[in-house]
Amino acid sequence: MIVVPLLLMPIGFMIAAVVFVAILFVLLSKFYLTDQRRMTSHTAARVVSAEQRVVVNEVERRTETEVVARFSVNGHEHEVKRVLRGERAKQFPPGKEVPVRYNPGRPWMAQLLIS
User: Fold this and answer.
1) What is the mean pLDDT of residues 91-106?
2) What's the CA gap between 15 and 30, in Å, rounded?
3) For residue 30, what is the enclosing H or E element?
4) What is the pTM of this model?
5) Could you count the other beta carbons within 10 Å of the beta carbon of residue 45?
C-alpha cells in the first residue's frame, strides 16, 4: 500500500489547478480573444479593383477573384483585400460601395463583408 503524505496532496491539487488555468488561457487566447472579435466598427469601402485569376496546382484548377477596396477612418486611408472563389469581377466594378468591418483601435485590421 502506498501512503501519500497529507502535505503533498494540496500541492498536487495546486499544480493541477495551475495546469488547468494555463490550458484554459491558451484555449481562450486561441478561440475567443481573436482579432476578428475585435473588429466591431463598420463602414463602407469603395472598390479599387477586382481581378480574376486562374489558380492551378497538383490537386485542382480554380478561378479566383481578388477584390481590393479602400476606406477612410479618422482621415486615414486604409486598403483591404479579399479573395473570392469563382469569376466574380463583374459584380465589383471600381467605385462600388461594399461593407467593411474593422478594429477601431487598429483600423488596418479590416475585413470586407462580401461572400
Assistant:
1) 93
2) 23
3) helix 8-31
4) 0.68
5) 24
- The answer to whether the beta carbons of residues 40 and 101 sit under 8 Å apart is yes
CA 92 from centre of chain: 22
Using only the alpha carbons of the chain, give its radius of gyration.
Answer: 24
Non-local (6+) Cβ contacts of 57 within 8 A are: none
Percent pLDDT > 70 in the chain is 88
What is the rounded distance in angstroms from the CA atom of residue 50 to the CA atom of residue 114?
13
Q: Are strands 61-73 and 41-56 parallel, antiparallel or unpaired?
A: antiparallel
What is the reported pLDDT for 12? 76
Cell output for 61:
484548377
